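Lay summary. Proteins are chains of building blocks that fold into shapes, and those shapes determine what they do. In this project we predict the shape from the chain. Here is one chain we studied, written as its sequence of building blocks.
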Amino acid sequence: MTPARKAGRCASLMKASGLIRQEIAAIFANPVPVEAHARCGPFGLRLGFASQDLADMFLPAYIRSGPATIDLDLRFITAAHHDLSALVPEAAEKPRLLIEDGIYSVWQPAVVPVLYAVDLTARRGIAWLPKGEAPPWIRSRPAISLIHAMMHDTPWCAVHGAAVGHDAGFTLLAGEGHSGKTTAALACTKAGWRYAGDDFVAVNSATGQIEPLFCSARLRPALVETFQSFIGETTAVSDFNGEPRHELSLADLGDRIGGGKLRATFIPRRRGAATPEFAPAKQSDAFRALLPTTAYELPGWPNEIAAKVAKIAGLAPVFFADTGTAPMQIPAAFAHQLERL
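And here is the predicted shape, written in a compact code that computers can read:
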């Protein structure tokens, strides 16, 4: 048994939330060599990295901003910087969620484990990487579960979907993986639309306002030729579980990374149409397209998530969108559909 695990056992009389709060405070007692500011949905973040390598790993996904309001102070650390093994559950191979006394904590095991924790009272959060690395999908949406926790008592919800904006309004693209959300979002962005994300976006369930969470995108190799303009010479290519992706940072879009008002929800699907086609869909179709991955990826408060997603699904007209076989025909078709509403 490690000294840290032994100390954790000795502290068994302390609530788990108390121990986590104590560890978060200890981490924030020390300065970090790299700091930055970002906006993530409706929140302003101050980001601290225990090494330049961690900053290089996660900063490309964040939408950088000036040091304005700080809603969450977030630190990225590894086992080499701080030993948090006392917070790892005894059954370390199983995920763990703790919501207690203003503390939200998630242990995500798998091949490359990560521990997230946030003190919602102090508005301080940590992302701890025991092995010093993170899977590509975590690097593309870092610490999203902590943003989810910050949204709990607000109308905001992080939802699994893409979103892009046109003069006629924003469309939320809902659906499972491989349904064509990224293709549609990047095609519209290449055509000059505003970009709010290709994986998870923030939506206000009361007002329909959409805001980007990150400026990242994950592109399949088959689409490289179509979207070559988004791919720099040094773009990393991940190959996790046999699913290669170009890991993109769209930070160079500048002011075109942003949000706006939801005008319609499109549910992309490929049904063999040569050119994009639309068919009316129901609120329940949007709900079913948005909820499963949203609830699976964001642990905690499943009933509240479902209630918010149901509201979002009912805020705007819903359509199935067969996106066709030529990606660059998508923007004009989407624009025409939005303008008709």
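What the prediction tells us: DSSP finds nine helices and 20 strands in the chain.
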